[in-house]
Amino acid sequence: MLKLRYLTIFLWDALATAVALTTAFLLRFDGDIPSRWIAVMKLALPVLVASRLLAVFAARLYRWSFRMSGFAEALRLLVATLGGSALFIAAFPFVSAQGLPRSVLALEFFLSGALMGGVRFAPRIAFGWYSQQQRARKGAMRRTLVVGAGSAGDLLVRDLMRSTDHPYEVVGFVDDDPAKLGMWLGGRPVLGRTDALPALIARHQVTMVMLAIQRMPAERIREILQLCSSQKASFKIIPASFGTTDGRSAAAMLHDLSPDDLLPRDEVAFDEVEVRALLEGKRLLVTGGAGSIGSEIARQAAVHGVRQLVLADMNENEMYLLARRLRQGHPQADIHTEVADVRDPARMLQLGERYRPHFVFHAAAHKHVPLMEDAPEEAVKNNVLGTLNAARMASACGAERFVFISTDKAVRPSSVMGASKRVGEYLVRDLARHSRTQMTAVRFGNVLGSAGSVVPLFKQQIERGGPVTVTHPECTRYFMTISEAVGLVLLAGLGGYGDLCVLDMGEPIRIADLAHHLITMAGYIPGQEIQVVYSGLRPGEKLHEAPLTEDEERAHLVRNRIKVAKSPAPPLDLHERVEELRKLAELGDRAGVVRVLGQLVPSYVPHLAHRPPGTLADVLPLRHTPAPRRGA
After folding, report:
1. pLDDT, tens digit, for every residue of 226-251?
2. With the CA atoms of 429, 430, 433 and 434 taken in that order, what torsion angle do they form, in degrees rounded to the nearest 10?
3. Are residues 111 and 169 both part of a single domain?
4. How many angstroms separate the CA atoms of 24 and 342, rounded?
5. Residue 136's pLDDT is what?
6. Total domains present in the chain
7. Whole domain around residue 113: which residue ranges?
8. pTM higher than the cut 0.90
9. How far apart are CA 191 and CA 546, in angstroms?
């Protein structure tokens, strides 16, 4: 089949050359070729055809993609046409002493190039027209603007023009480069600068905006969303890895603009070789393995070749589904599931004795701030006593490392959840002093898209038509993507940097801005089609979070995005107070639990609902006077 195709192309090029030469003579002599020139033309024809076919063969123009040909192929065709003419001019004197008129040579060159190029590029033009007609027949075409008239935008538009499997009709580009304004790219004009987007969307009835600038800064993305918030348009973006397409088309790599793209910092890059060196051949046990963080730890561990992976959780359904996915994707991994409660110390010791893990990642926790305000005894059982049980298990079974997942809500906590996690940090640091197991607490902020976080909630509210509820217009939070957070947890926890590592999450994001951007990204107008309402801070919530306390501000950066903090040692009576917490939690004495948490964490100010009647000054004397602290 290929040989027939190649032969057809050669025959066409030979015919095109003959037609071009004859036409050139007819044009030169006004349609009446003298007989002596006819004889010369007959001698020249076979030499010219042979020269052209030899040049076509040398340039491999018989191997032609009729649908994918572009500028590079046009350049090859031009070079081959020039080469064929040069060969003919060099060879024809050996056949005839009479040369051809220079006008005939010039005309034949242009005519041959046009005919040979026409048959090669005509299918692409025809297919582009056909694709456009097919998309139009399907209806519901989405008029589209492409932000970025560079190489990525050009490639994206060309891919879209070649395909019928999409509803996008590109009307033009926008770009901030003044030199590109008014230019045409891929058959589409550069209509203006990005600050003209709202007017262009309205003028051209655009419903889709595609961001085709590689590694566009998150700040710029947020500016564009804010600029377009008054227009009904959805957004897509090319990924940061666009430079390595792995054979995929630019159009296929497009994805919906997501909250991940809005983070005010560069994406964290990981050295896969380094991560694999830490995990390969090791036995891991992950508590809370079915949760957002635990499941991502399990996934990354399986990717990097752990010998054995043990998932422990009380959510047996999610754990079963996760283990099934992991076994399908990584059949070589030895995966075990254990329905187990971290609040049960005997059960934890059984798991440690049975599997003898090298590394224990403790991700099990109660994390919902308002719920824990209503059930402080449960926060203590899970976040304090569960951490103690998991850490003791790791030490008893001789694990090399124990990694405790903490939160920025443990810094100057205003909630029971934050205070309980702060006590968990104390316990990990204290136990590390007496154990051969190296123990590390890793602290970071909110994870985008995790179960119970604001992003899934906002998306659900938008799908229902609103309103989107935000606690306070000035409320800010630190965010990371789940893959970034877990990748850094692996490096921080297994790197041996210190007993408290804090992940650098960049600048905080205003929750109200995030809500407005998500509404805009969904194609709605904030404040008109989807309302944003402010519900007030919930019990235990803070207006702003901080990754470090004043005492920890001396933290130093040990590597990209990982800091090691030096904080005061836990109280000398830590374990006595934790034992008191245990008894109060078992009795369900919520006021007592909150009181002892306040004694353990002096910076914790309980919510009003947990305070006895009277002013804050009345409450403070109730606090236990902290015992003398060890040095940092």
Report:
1. 999 888 888 988 875 554 444 455 55
2. -130
3. no
4. 90
5. 59
6. 3
7. 2-129
8. no
9. 44
State how far the alpha carbon of 398 is from the alpha carbons of 270, 306, 353, 391, 435, in Å: 29, 18, 9, 11, 9
For residue 301, report the phi and psi dihedrals to the nearest 5 degrees: -65, -40
Tell me whether residue 457 is in a domain. Answer: no
pLDDT of residue 309: 96
Strands 184-185 and 188-192 turn out to be antiparallel
Cβ-in-10-Å burial (0-12, 13-18, 19+) of 568 comes to middle
Residues written for the chain: 632
Distance CA 151, CA 101 (A): 43
Q: Which residue has the higher pLDDT, 473 or 565?
A: 473
Confirm if 326 and 319 have CB atoms less than 8 A apart.
no
Kindly state whether residue 329 falls inside one of the protein's structural domains.
yes
User: Looking at residue 552, what is its pLDDT?
Assistant: 67
Answer whether residue 513 is part of any domain: no
Q: Which range is most confident: 167-171, 306-310, 520-524? A: 306-310
What helix, strand, coil percent values describe the chain, rounded to 5? 50, 15, 35
> Is the CB of residue 123 less than 8 Å from the CB of residue 66?
yes
Distance CA 575, CA 426 (A): 10
| pLDDT tens-digit map of 155-169 | 888 778 766 667 788
Residues 331 and 443 reside in one and the same domain: yes
The strand pair at 308-313 and 283-287 is best described as parallel
Domain match, 246 and 284 both: no
pLDDT at site 65 = 67
Q: Given this model, what pLDDT does residue 284 score?
A: 96
The 3-class SS string of 493-512 reads HHCCCCCEEEECCCCCEEHH
Nearest-CA neighbor of 403 among 497, 302, 479?
497
Residue bearing tokens 């969307």:
201
- CATH number of the CATH domain containing 197: 3.40.50.720
pLDDT tens, residue by residue, 257-292? 777 777 766 667 678 888 899 999 999 999 999 999
- β-pair type (438-444, 500-503): parallel
As a whole number of angstroms, the distance between CA 483 and CA 332 comes to: 22
42 in a domain, yes or no?
Answer: yes
The model's confidence at residue 629, banded by pLDDT at 50, 70 and 90, is very low
Nearest CA-CA partner of 381 in 581, 571, 580: 581
Q: Which residues are within 8 A (CB) of 601 and not within 5 positions of it... i.e. 6 or more apart?
A: 413, 419, 422, 423
